[in-house]
Amino acid sequence: MSNKDFRIFLIMGAFGVGKSTISALLAKTYKNYRHVDLDEHIAKKKKMGIKEFMGKIGYEKFYEVSERYINEIVIGHKNYKKYCGQTLLIDVGSGSTFDYRAFDLTNEHYCVLLTADAEYIYETREKCKKSGMKNLHYYKYWQFGKEKEQLYANCVIKVDVAYLTPEQVAEQLNTKIKNFQDGSFYIPQNDSENEG
Fold this sequence. Notes:
Blueprint (H helix, E strand, L loop, with lengths): L7 E5 L6 H11 L3 E5 H9 L3 H8 L1 H21 L7 E5 L11 H6 L1 E6 L2 H7 L1 H5 L5 H9 L1 H8 L3 E4 L5 H13 L1 E2 L2 E2 L11
Parallel strand pairs: 1-3, 1-4, 2-3, 4-5
Antiparallel strand pairs: 6-7
Helix pairs in contact: 1-10, 2-4, 3-4, 6-8
């Protein structure tokens, strides 16, 4: 049985776009969401910072580790009764989607893309400049290059975060996830229920 038969979404996007912030806010604000930060999960398991761990094993090996832990999180979510009925959001660090094999993730799971113009993200997110992303050109190359472009095109839900507050992005994403079933969107007959 594919993971696409379950309410499981991988949250993807460029470094600094707000994957962790939005996913955590969504789980905190609305009912029936569970959020796992993949980088935090890996760092906890490996007992070292994610940058240190990635530097130690390299990008290609890091992708393999990421894939293994995504599967572990998904299996745990499916098997624990306390998570029954919850939608699982795994925010996937940009390092986990570096490898060309990340396309396999979009075949196995439904993926959400949080995005914006590269210049907007780079100029408005301090963490981009503090992370070693030397300049906008370098950032665009690693975060919006051809492979990433193709990977992001496979995401079934997309939200442009530019000029929106985290709360507005979370609200949009909640609506899109609610209206997404069996690989397509539907328009609910009565959507007056207010979750919160």
